[in-house]
Amino acid sequence: MSYARFTVAYWCLLAAALLPLACAALAKWGMWQVSPRQGGYDNKNPRAWLARQTDWRARANSAQANTFEALPFFFAAVIIAHQLHASQVRLDVFAFVFVVLRIAYVMMYVADMAKSRSVIWFLALLVNVGILFLGYR
Asked: Which of 82, 95, 89, 90 is CA-nearest to residue 17?
């Protein structure tokens, strides 16, 4: 009996899928204990509560949305590269770099470093395109 093993690239898919949840938690950080009447997190109406947030909380929520938007292309690129038998080492490295760049992107977004954030976003996009073409022959 053989067992399928997760590649590093597959683990990166999991990390990328969890990143939006980390952004959401960051946006709500420290507000769970505060009453909704006093501006704390309102679990009965979370989207309206998030829409009223400003500064870093609003940026964390925007980073969450953008991180969700990046997932389909990343997932597809990794799966296609696996199907095309891309070099596993290269695929693992590219996927890991993508996740690191996306984490840096979130950090730059929350820190309000717009130019750096845009550069990192573009680099992550290039890495993702690279992943897609790793198996191209």
From this structure: 95
Cβ pair 13, 96 in contact under 8 A:
no
* Separation between Cα atoms, residue 69 and residue 122, nearest integer Å: 14
Instruction: Give the chain's domains with CATH numbers.
Output: 8-133 (1.20.120.550)
Residues 110, 111, 115, 120, CA torsion sign: negative
Q: State mean pLDDT over 104-131.
A: 97
pTM above 0.85, yes or no: yes
| Cα angle: 80, vertex 20, 98; to 5 degrees | 45
* Amino acid occupying residue 70: A
C-alpha dihedral (118, 119, 125, 126), degrees to nearest 10: 160
List helix spans (H) across 54-113. 55-83, 88-110
Instruction: Give 43-54 pLDDT, tens digit per residue.
Output: 777 787 788 888
Q: Which residues contact 108 (CB under 8 A, 6 or more apart)?
A: 114, 116, 117, 120
How far apart (Å, rounded) are the C-alpha atoms in residues 132 and 13? 14
